[in-house]
Amino acid sequence: MSVTAAAGFVAAGVAAGIKASGRPDLSLVATDDGAPVAAAGVFTRNLMTAAPVITTRAHLEATDGRAVAVVLNSGNANAATGDQGLADAEAMCAAVAAELGVTATQVLVCSTGLIGIPMPIDVITAGIPDLVAARSADAGLDAATAIMTTDTVPKQVVIDAGGFTVGGMAKGAAMLSPNMATMLAVLTTDAAATSAQLKAALVVGVADSFNALDVDGCTSTNDTVLLLASGRAGPVDHDALVAAVSEACASLAAQMCADAEGATKVVRMTVTGAATDDDARVGARYVSRSNLVKCSWYGCDPYWGRIASDLGSCGIPFDPARLTVSYGGIVVCRGAVDSEHDEAAVAAHMQGRHLDVVADLGLGDGTATILTNDLTHAYIDENMGTS
Predict the structure, then answer these.
(1) Domain CATH number, residue 355
(2) pLDDT higher than 50, residue 207
(3) Considering 182, 189, 219, 221, which one is annotated as catalytic?
(4) Is 324 among the residues known to form the active site?
(5) Which of 230, 258, 286 is the last residue of a domain?
(6) Can you give the chain as a three-state secondary structure string?
(7) Whose CA, among 135, 173, 192, 257, lies 20 to 30 Å from 150?
(8) Is the pLDDT of residue 64 over 70?
(9) Does the pTM of the predicted model rise above 0.85?
(10) Which domain holds residue 305?
């Protein structure tokens, strides 16, 4: 059930005609009784901010963090669309609100797809009555499917926290880089919480999940993560809520990484032994964004020299004599020189779907991990144009 697993929520997903392929492209998550509930969101830090992000932020502020529904579309990002884009985002909210009998500011909006193309707003608003009519507690998969773009599979999660539930859905397969990724995510819970408590849980939840995911170093214009709470399960321990939200975010981030455009590897790139955690994070992200390193992962080559070079040039404290690099727990470099190792074991690790790479700087206790991928021909094929 994913996003409808938490008591009090329904969802829907339909093909409205935004995508020329005819695939589902319009999605809804809403309270089952049409009543507003506590809501919060975190958003892209890209200053080229899409109209739906601007609109959703404004609606959350206008309602003091209360929402009835989230309407989402794929196939068009409604980004770089000027004043008309803002009007179209508001029109989507107003159309849903009219069907539900609520105010437009109680509806949040998300869009994903190509940038700089006018929204087919008449097509979208014409599809909204059918979308709202289709809402059901059993339609979580439909909703998750309708927000897919280059995704090959829907992303869903359910966390049973023992007394309350967190459910969610997400999309994202490229432009994955903090903060956050070309991604949309809607989370729901039946825990009772204020908007401020939900925002606090989200900030923690995205830190080591969506904000530690870096596929291609590109930050989208539309990134949005929303969390709504029906309160049906009653008050819960705040730490338990934070933990459940964090677990849900981590699952969705891992699913996005596994489905990244063209990827054949899911890589956990860890830098440890840094002077500080911030230094470790800079180093891990720098390596994760290196096209040379990512290509070597695609080629199943544990080319540690590229990792050492990146760590030495990323601006953090670095001493080659203290560096070790390991693949799958097997040290291949010690003191910035090749280390005798079991080559067959490393080769077997490199052939796998999941790579675990650790660079120990030997300077302190700082550590950080970035979830990333290899760089393949298929990524280039996917991103050569807009058609």
Answers:
(1) 3.10.20.340
(2) yes
(3) 182
(4) no
(5) 258
(6) CHHHCCCCEEEEEECCCCCCCCCCCEEEEEECCCCCEEEEEEECCCCCCCHHHHHHHHHHHHCCCEECEEEEEECECCCCCHHHHHHHHHHHHHHHHHHHCCCHHHEEEEEECCCCCCCCHHHHHHHHHHHHHCCECCCHHHHHHHCCCCCCCCEEEEEECCCCEEEEEEECCCCECCCCECCEEEEEEEEECCHHHHHHHHHHHHHCCHHHECCCCCCCCCCEEEEEEEEEEEECCHHHHHHHHHHHHHHHHHHHHHCCCCCCCEEEEEEEEECCHHHHHHHHHHHHCCHHHHHHHHCCCCCHHHHHHHHHHCCCCCCHHHCEEEECCEEEEECCEECCCCHHHHHHHHCCCEEEEEEECCCCCEEEEEEEECCCHHHHHHCCCCC
(7) 135
(8) yes
(9) no
(10) 266-382
Within a domain: residue 387? no
CATH number at residue 193: 3.60.70.12
pLDDT (tens digit per residue) in 66-108:
999 999 999 999 999 999 999 999 999 999 999 999 999 999 9
